[in-house]
Structure formats: structure tokens, C-alpha cells
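Methods — Computational structure assignment.
A single polypeptide chain was analysed. Its primary sequence is given first, followed by the predicted tertiary structure written as C-alpha cells.
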Amino acid sequence: MHAGQRWGFGAFLLVEAVFILTAVFITAVARTSGTDIATSVTFVLVGSMVPTVLAAAVAVTITYLRGNGPFRDLRLAWDWADVKIGLKLGALGLVLTYVAAVIWSRVVGDSNATSAIGELVDGAGLPVAAAVAMFVYVCFLGPVCEEVIYRGLLWGAIERQRWSRWAAFVLTTLIFAASHLEPLRTSLLIVIALPIGIARLITRRLTASVVAHVINNFLPGLTLLLVSIGVMPA
């Protein structure tokens, strides 16, 4: 814990509340207006991106108001050694994700193994500009925001309780997986999260886990882009 850090689990709960309430609000607006989220490009983009980005923005704001800022409190210090570790663990994560996804799809069926964002993109038939925006979100913006929330803010809150780094690793991995609100895919998300959490665990900084998360999301994000613009079959 850093000196001057006056935030803990309450900050994380507030950020999660912002995420959930924003998602609920967007869904309610869509239903009130009679819009089908699955076929509306605007709501596909807004519903996928805004809750996570807004929640991460609140997390960063909390570190300024109640701490020392995100670079110190969330361990965002830049180190090329961390980047290399993130790249290696991200590549490992790609392999683990592929193997786990193949096994999981055979267990639950291909239709049940599809992610929520995958279903949205597949159903929306996004135009090129929207598909590129979704690609940027899935591969870059989303991973940064999620790392700020879970292996930044939540990890820091756990450390503030003087719990071990292993406790922080286990709890953030489980909560990260559960927070996607996709019960069928929770066990798969835990597998995906393991290399990302290990990057944070061994470097004690967020940069490595951000890089690992970006690498892990790249191929799925690229696939979504190619499917949504019709280059690949759904």
C-alpha cells in the first residue's frame, strides 16, 4: 500500500456499481425507445464500450481524489522488462485460451460458447467504421480499462488489507471472470485470466498484465473484425 492511499474495497464496489448501473441504463433506454440492441449499431458500440470505459474513468478519478494518482496507486510505472514479460505471458494465454475454448465448445456446444460481444457483432452486421471501433475496443481500450479496474484498483484494495499477493491474484482472477456476467463462460474466463494475473503477480506492476491482456485479446478481436465486415464467415 502506498502512503496517502485512502481508498479500498469501497472504491472498487463503487466502480462496479457504475459499470452495472450504466449497462442497465443503456439497456433500459434501448428498450424504452423500442430499439433492438442486437441489431442497432449505435447500441452495440455504446452498450459494449461505455460501461467499462466509464467505470475505469471513475477508478482513475478515485486515485486522484483519494490517493496519489493512477501511476503510483495502480502500479502503472512503465518498464520494458514488464512489456517483454507481458508479451510472453500473453502468447501463452493465447495458446491456453485456444485449447480451453476448443474443449469448452465441445462440452457446452458452439452456440453457448460464444461471448456476449461476439453475439452482438454477429447479430449486428457492423459497418466498417463500427467494426474497426469494436476491434480497437476489444484489443486495446477494453483490456486497459479492465486492468485498471481489476488488477489495478481491486488488487490495490486487497493489498491495503495486508493480504498476500497470492490472495490478490486468486481473488482478482475469480472476480474478473465473474464480473463478465456470462455464467456459462466463467470457468473459461478464469483460464483466460490466469496468465494475465500472473503477469501482475510476478512484476508487481500493471504494465505487464495490460500487455498480456492486449495480446490475449488480439486474435479474438481480429476475428470479430473480419467476421463483422464479411471477410470471414460467422
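Note: The longest helix spans residues 128-160.
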